[in-house]
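FORM 7B - TANDEM STRUCTURE REPORT

SECTION 1: FIRST PROTEIN
SEQUENCE AND TOKENS:
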Amino acid sequence: MRLMSKRRDRPTGRGTNGPARRLRGLAKSEKGFGLVEALIAAVILAIGLLAIAGLSVSTAGQGNVARWQTDQAIVAQSVLDEAHRRGFDALTADWERAISVGGREYAVAATVTKLSARVKEVTASVSGVGPLRKRTFTSRVYAPRQLPAPGGS
């Protein structure tokens, strides 16, 4: 005995004209990528590659700026170390010079300011390279204290 659908001429069951058969027919007719899909994928890939290239250029530029800032700090540190080596009494006048670090030359101006009888402030202004501004570094030099004579009060 065969089951019949409400429509008398069509039997029920698998393999009949139903939604599943229509989907199988669509799947058979749609094989591979079309031209539009391939173009869209190429555009998305190109946008991603351009973004990565832009980031790498930006990263390289920031690396240069960081290296130049480090060089400025090295130059200023050498000037301030020299001021401490000279000692309190030898720091009497301002000076300027050019110092080369990392293949670049930096102009340095050092100014000495007497803050009190025992304290002098040394300010080193280092010129900028490329997009960098002039940076200022400061240190204080103190006069040595006189120690009391041994055995005396």
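SECTION 2: SECOND PROTEIN
SEQUENCE AND TOKENS:
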Amino acid sequence: MQAPTQDLTTSRPMIVTTTENIPEAQVVKTIGQVFGLTVRSRSLGGNIAAALKSLAGGEIRSYVKLNEDSRRQALDRMVQNAAAMGANAVTMMRFDSTEMGRSMSEIVAYGTARVVEWPPVAPNTSAQG
């Protein structure tokens, strides 16, 4: 997965991966742990509507959207923090969540901030004719 970053000094977007290694990339420096988190809650009206929906069963779309938005925000914050640390990649990325009280959830995205480089691309020297 590639996430956009505000760091305009690099020619590539921030690489975010759940794996330890990035194919064809060489790790130049491992900076360390990086994370982004958010805490979200539903409004009272949203909780009531979700409770009514749960009686009938099925997917509660408002909660799905809330969780998707929360994960995206946590991921974006992690990418911003990694860029501020000087990284151009995050490896071993994971999500975690915790319920806080009855109506709040904490979502955290975390991983290892790294600086990686790619080998230079050899120019195409084949003759065309």
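SECTION 3: OBSERVATIONS ON SECOND PROTEIN
The chain has one domain: 2-117.
The CA atoms of residues 93 and 111 lie 4 Å apart.

SECTION 4: SIGNATURE
Preparer initials: ____
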